[in-house]
Design a protein that fits this description.
This protein folds into two domains: 71 residues; 176 residues, MetI-like fold (Orthogonal Bundle), CATH 1.10.3720.10. The protein is built from 13 helices and no strands. The chain starts with a helix and ends with a helix.
Length: 269
């Protein structure tokens, strides 16, 4: 890490050099529209992917907790994507969304010649295909973790709610879900790690395209390091990724401590 930070302040190209250039690499980095798009995609992809994975995972966990019919079958179906890597997930969804082999080709074969499903080829929509694939991949894991948390809730709480006539939805929203705050923090950490490692999914599914509309910082770093032979620029991008992760982790830690203090004050009151 220290070596990478040092290189980011040099003019290193194909090979690392000791020529100090100050913040030149960082200034040039933000002049590149590709980096701006990649950095923005990190938050867009990360925010939507995290939110929808948690949402669907929670809904599935609640359904299982209520003893939905076919519970064992659904657990198997939704847990299956966890066994796949992001590379396999990206390839599978690339085939599904490809106009010549996937859903669009199938619907046209049914006689709907004007049907268009151009998510992969539309620069404004392509990033959302990564969200769809990522949510499909991770919702099952979130379901399993949250369901385990729901199973640990004391049964006396549910019996008391029945005596008081409190609706189940209200119990989940006001009592049970807030009790599982540590579980959700664990889920957020796992999902954040997947966002940082989203390089595999992007390469397999869109290759960063159309153009560089689905580029992410990890792919930007790898391309500049191995294809464009610009170690200095790649190192600067890596350092910014590191700082972003540190800031986000710091914010989440502070939020967790604030919540813990608030709960303690509430109990004392």
């Amino acid at each position: 890490m220290l070596w990478t930070i040092q290189i980011s302040f040099t003019s290193s190209g194909l090979l690392p050099t000791g020529k100090f250039v100050g913040l030149y690499q960082y200034v040039e980095l933000f002049k590149q529209n590709r980096w701006t798009v990649a950095y923005r995609n990190l938050f867009l992809l990360g925010g939507l992917y995290t939110a929808f994975s948690l949402l669907f995972g929670t809904l599935l966990a609640v359904a299982l907790d209520q003893g939905i019919r076919g519970k064992s079958y659904l657990q198997t179906v939704f847990l299956y994507p966890i066994a796949l890597s992001f590379i396999v997930t990206g390839l599978a969804w690339h085939w599904v969304l490809n106009p010549t082999t996937g859903l669009e080709f199938f619907v046209r074969g049914l006689g709907f010649e004007d049907f268009r499903f151009n998510l992969l080829t539309n620069p404004q929509l392509a990033i959302f295909t990564l969200v769809i694939a990522g949510v499909w991949h991770s919702s099952g894991l979130m379901m399993a973790i949250i369901f385990a948390g729901l199973q640990s809730v004391d049964g006396e709480i549910w019996r008391a709610s029945k005596v008081d006539g409190i609706p189940k939805l209200t119990m989940y929203r006001r009592v049970v879900i807030p009790m599982l705050a540590p579980v959700f923090i664990t889920c957020l950490v796992l999902l954040a790690m997947q966002v940082v490692k989203s390089y595999d999914l992007v390469v397999a599914m869109t290759g960063g395209g159309p153009g560089y509309s689905t580029d992410v910082p990890a792919k930007f770093v790898v391309d500049h390091l191995f294809e464009r032979a610009n170690i200095g620029r790649a190192s600067a991008a890596s350092v910014l990724m590191l700082l972003t992760v540190i800031v986000l982790l710091g914010c989440s830690t502070l939020a967790s401590k604030w919540r813990g203090r608030a709960q303690t004050d509430e109990r004392n009151t």
